[in-house]
Amino acid sequence: MKYEAVIFDLDGVICHTDEYHYLAWKKVADELNIYFDEKINNQLRGVSRMDSLEIILRSYPKQLTQEEKIHYTQIKNQYYCELLQSMAPEDECEEVKDTLQKIKNKGILMAIGSSSKNAKFILQRIGLMDYFTAISDGNNITHSKPNPEVFLKASDYLGVNPTACLVVEDAKVGIEAALSGNMDCAALGDAKNHPQATYKLNSFSDLLQILT
Ligand code: BG6
Ligand code: MG
Questions:
Q1: Is the pTM of this model over 0.90?
Q2: Residue 198's pLDDT is what?
């Protein structure tokens, strides 16, 4: 078997919280009267909360103070967490659950490699925590994707060499992070636009064809 472990991004890969990130940032952008659309939102995939705000502020004519920036990231997280409250195990996609179970049955280890500080809360809400041997997230990193830190920490927690790990991502910066950490990567959604993705998946369950 080429891969001993799979490291999954969370938002937009395991669950549809990428839509909630979009809705929460849209509310903040509307309050600030800043134009915001799906294309700009794609640039926020995989990027930390503060870096996301900096990207949104690129078209803002005024300079915000550090305190104001902290305020808007807090407001965004508040809107986001309100949306997370509606999540429940029964809403989680059957295809994802079924694929995770089949990967587990093959004896392949699984971890989360996410920039989010809400990762554990989300995994608890959707009832998938037990599939993952290790969680590397926004709370244990100092550099967000495209830096490979979050994935290298995940491989370290699992005790698996990076070259034996496969990363699954929906963010272009996540593909860059995997490659610069010496890991192969499988792209979903917007990440498929990255020319160097090792594999491009049409659907989550396509992973099973790679992990034969
Ligand atoms: C990533 C998302 O998973 O986590 C980004 O793709 C988000 O959009 C980042 O900004 C940080 O998330 P959180 O939950 O800590 O604000
Ligand atoms: Mg993502």
A1: yes
A2: 98
**Residues of the chain above pLDDT 70, percent:** 100
Ligand 1: residues within 6 Å at CB? 10-11, 21, 44-49, 52, 77, 114-118, 138, 171
SS3 readout for the chain? CCCCEEEECCECCCECHHHHHHHHHHHHHHHHCCCCCHHHHHHHCCCCHHHHHHHHHHHCCCCCCHHHHHHHHHHHHHHHHHHHCCCCHHHCCHHHHHHHHHHHHCCCEEEEECCCCCHHHHHHHHCCHHHCCEEECCCCCCCCCCCCHHHHHHHHHHCCCHHHEEEEECCHHHHHHHHHCCCEEEECHHHHHCCCCCEECCCHHHHHHHCC
Residue owning the nearest CA to atom 13 of ligand 1: 116
Q: Which of 19, 49, 54, 117 to mutate to test the pocket of ligand 1 (most atoms within 8 A of CB)?
A: 49
Q: Which residues are catalytic?
A: 9, 11
pLDDT over 80 at 87, yes or no: yes
Nearest bound ligand to the CA of residue 73:
1
